[in-house]
Amino acid sequence: MAGFQRDLYQASKPGAAYDPGQEFRERQKIQRAINEAPVVLAEKFKLEGNDASDNAGQMNDLSIAVNGMSSKIVPRVVFPSFGTYRFTAGLAFTRPVALDFQSATLNYVGTGDMCTLGVDGIDALASKDFKHFSVSGGFFIGGANATAGFRVKAYLISPYFENVFFNVFGNADCWAIDLESQNWDTVITGFKWYTNSDTTGDRNGIRCNYGTNDNGQTRLRVYKSHLLEQGFGAGTAVKLNGANNEIVHSTIAGFGTNVWLASRANYCNILYNNFETTKGTECIQIGDRSGLDTGDFIQYLIAEGNYCNMHNSDSYGTSASFIGPATTDAGLQFADVVANRVVDLDPSRPMVRQNSLASQNGNYAARNRGQTILHTSGGLIDNWDGTDGP
C-alpha cells in the first residue's frame, strides 16, 4: 500500500479514535491523504450530528482542506449517512468537487449562503477551470435567514445536482439552488422540494439568475424533479432567465408561480410535466416583473404534453389561466402550445391569457384539451395558428 493510501486509510477508517494529543499529526496525515487521493470522508473533520452543536468550524476546515487539494483531481467528499448537522457557516468550495451528502441532514441556521460553489470575478475564458462540480443526496432544512441554499457562482459551468432534498427551507428572498448567471448546461435531476401543510411564509426553489449577456447562454435542465408547496406560502418554484432552458417530466404544484419565464427566457421547453395551480396566478408566467427588461416579449416557448389542474371551481377558487403575463407589458411570440391537458379551468377563461399588445405573432396551438386558446379582447393580438386557435 502506497504511503498516501495508508495515511488515507488510517485517517478515515470508520471508528478510528481521535486523540487530542495527536491533533497536529492527524491533521497533517489527513491533509497529505486528501492531497493525493480522490475521496474525503467528512466525518473525520469531527462533525457532530446532534442538531445542537454548531459545526461551522468543522465545515470550514473541510472546505479549506478540499480547496487546497491538487487541481489535477476532482475529490469526492462523502458525508455521513446519518445524523443532523447544524451549522452557521463554513461550506464554500472554490475548486471542482463532487459532494456526496448521502442521507445526512444539514440544518443551516446562518445568515449567508448555506454552500457556495465557485469564485467571484471569473469570465468565460476562465470558466474551463470551473467544471465538474456535482452535488448528490442530502436533506437540507433551516435557512430562515439564509441568502441562498446552494449558490453557484457566475461562469461555473455544467454543475450537476442529483437527488437533493430540501424540506421547509429558506425564506421569501432565498432560493434553494441559486445560479448566478452564465452557468451553462446546468443539470438538476431528481430534485425534491417540500413544505408541510401548516407551513407559512414564502419560499423558493430554483433560480437561473439574470446576467448582462444571458440570452442563449444559460441552458438549465430540470428533469424528473418534484417541487410541492403544501402550505400557505406563495413563492416561485422555478424562475428562468436566459434562453434554451427546459423543464421535463417533473411535478410542480402549489406555488404562487410554478414556472416563471422572466428576462430573455426565449427558446424554453416545458414538456410532459404535472402542474397544479392553487394560489391564483398563472401556472406559467411570462415577462420580467423585476423591472430589468420590462416589455420583454418571450419568444419560441414550447409547452407540450403537460397536465395542469387549475382549481378554478373547487375550494381553492383560483382565477388563473395556464399561461399568462407577469406584467401588463409582457408579450408572447412564436410559441407552440400543443397537446396539453388543462382541467378545472373556467370555460370563460382562456388557456393562454395575453395582454392586448401588438406584434404577438407567430403563435401556434393544437390538440390541447380542457379549453381553447383564447386571448384578451382588444384587437391588437394576432390570431393563433393551429386547430384550436381563437
Describe this structure in words.
- 9% of the residues lie in helices and 30% in strands.
- The protein has 390 residues and is mostly beta strands.
- The chain has one domain (40-366): Pectate Lyase C-like.
- α1 packs across α2.
- The chain starts with a helix and ends in a 24-residue tail after the last strand.
Distance between the termini: 74 Å
Tally of extended strands? 33
CATH homologous superfamily caption: Single-stranded right-handed beta-helix, Pectin lyase-like
Fraction of residues in β-strands: 25-35%
Count of helical regions? 3
Mean pLDDT, nearest integer?
85
Shape-level CATH architecture: 3 Solenoid
Low-confidence stretches: 1-19
Number of domains: 1
Task: Present the secondary structure layout.
Layout (H helix, E strand, L loop, with lengths): L2 H10 L10 H14 L2 E3 L14 H12 L8 E3 L5 E4 L3 E3 L4 E3 L4 E4 L4 E5 L16 E3 L2 E4 L5 E5 L7 E3 L2 E5 L5 E5 L7 E3 L2 E3 L9 E5 L12 E3 L2 E3 L7 E5 L5 E3 L2 E3 L3 E5 L7 E3 L2 E3 L7 E3 L10 E3 L2 E3 L2 E3 L13 E3 L5 E3 L2 E3 L2 E3 L20 E3 L24
Parallel strand pairs: 1-2, 2-5, 3-6, 4-7, 5-8, 6-9, 7-10, 8-11, 9-12, 10-13, 11-14, 12-15, 13-16, 14-17, 15-18, 16-19, 17-20, 18-21, 19-22, 20-23, 21-24, 22-25, 23-27, 24-28, 25-29, 26-30, 27-31, 28-32, 31-33
